[in-house]
């Protein structure tokens, strides 16, 4: 891998490890109003990101057309607010492993959807790596206690994870990772507040206790500010298909951190699954030496894919 690909891979990996840790933090917010917690998370993240949005940020935002603003709103609704509400809802009746397994399947979906949107065939090596990642994610998490509602909300979480990558492609180039993260956090805060009023009425927001405050601060300052910027910087360098391979690290991180709060354990199955995930990421991203000999993923075609999606 060249320097750009290596940096992109490391950034995507770091972002997904942070998100994986947030699954455990979510389990500490089970009694907090869904939308109110997301409002606090994204509002704080927006305030933290504004100073780092970059020069000419507001001028760049003013040049966006209605279509791209609508895409930003959909990205925030599906990939952020919807994703987190789905995970929180799933964990009301399911163990954290269940949504983690579904989210671990996101690389397979993205490996198929992104090329089809661009009018080309999925790359076999990326799809193969994605299958390894999905199997590894399932092995790591197993199939914990759940019910029909837990499964349904876990499927919604999968859709949100896919949307978080796919919907961002056309707006990543004109905005850049920092401004894109700032904009969607501001939009997500507004959407969360509206959802809170509709779902919970006057009880949509309350003062969090000490444990809830710690979980929300972790999600806002670390998972959202650091994680989002790293994710989009990584995706900018290696493309949505390969970046999403690293989402297989989300259940690995969730399994590693769950014992810290007493919601799970890490044993032989988790170790084997982690190895499968790492193998899938290495194969699909081109990190293995033999990948280069079988033929490079044409970077020009990946960049052409992003340019064509910008016009959507």
Automatic annotation (TrEMBL):
Keyword Transmembrane helix in annotation: yes
Keyword terms: Cell membrane, Membrane, Transmembrane, Transmembrane helix
Subcellular location: Cell membrane
Residues annotated as transmembrane: 40-60, 72-90, 96-117, 124-143, 149-172, 179-199, 215-233, 245-262, 268-288
Membrane topology listed for this record: Multi-pass membrane protein
Keyword Membrane: yes
Classification via InterPro entries: Diverse_Substrate_Transporter (IPR051258), EamA_dom (IPR000620), EmrE-like (IPR037185)
Signal sequence bounds: none
Domain EamA: 7-139, 182-283
Stored PANTHER family: INNER MEMBRANE PROTEIN YTFF, OS03G0707200 PROTEIN-RELATED
Family: Belongs to the EamA transporter family.
Protein name: DMT family transporter
Naturally occurring in which organism (per UniProt): Streptomyces rochei
């Amino acid at each position: 891998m060249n320097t750009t690909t290596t940096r992109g891979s490391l950034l995507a990996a770091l972002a997904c490890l942070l998100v994986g840790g947030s699954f455990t933090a979510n389990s500490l917010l089970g009694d907090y109003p869904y939308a109110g917690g997301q409002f606090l998370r994204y509002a704080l993240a927006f305030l933290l990101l504004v100073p780092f949005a970059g020069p000419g940020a507001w001028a760049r935002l003013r040049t966006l057309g209605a279509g791209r603003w609508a895409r930003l709103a959909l990205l925030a609704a599906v990939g952020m607010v919807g994703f987190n509400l789905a995970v929180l809802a799933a964990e009301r009746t399911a163990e954290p492993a269940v949504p983690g397994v579904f989210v671990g399947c996101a690389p397979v979906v993205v490996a198929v959807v992104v090329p089809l949107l661009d009018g080309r065939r999925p790359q076999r090596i990326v799809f193969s790596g994605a299958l390894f990642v999905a199997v590894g994610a399932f092995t790591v998490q197993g199939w914990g206690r759940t019910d029909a509602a837990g499964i349904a909300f876990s499927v919604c979480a999968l859709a949100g994870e896919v949307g978080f990558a796919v919907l961002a492609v056309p707006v990543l180039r004109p905005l850049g990772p920092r401004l894109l993260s700032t904009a969607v956090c501001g939009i997500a805060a507004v959407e969360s507040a509206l959802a809170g009023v509709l779902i919970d009425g006057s009880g949509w927001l309350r003062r969090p206790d000490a444990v809830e405050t710690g979980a929300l601060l972790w999600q806002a300052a670390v998972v959202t500010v650091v994680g989002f910027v790293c994710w989009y910087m990584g995706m900018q360098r290696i493309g949505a298909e390969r970046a999403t391979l690293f989402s297989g690290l989300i259940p690995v991180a969730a399994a590693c951190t769950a014992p810290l709060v007493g919601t799970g354990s890490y044993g032989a199955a988790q170790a084997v699954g982690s190895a499968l995930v790492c193998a899938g990421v290495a194969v699909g991203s081109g990190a293995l030496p033999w990948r280069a000999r079988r033929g490079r993923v044409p970077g020009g075609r990946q960049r052409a894919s992003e340019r064509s999606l910008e016009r959507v």
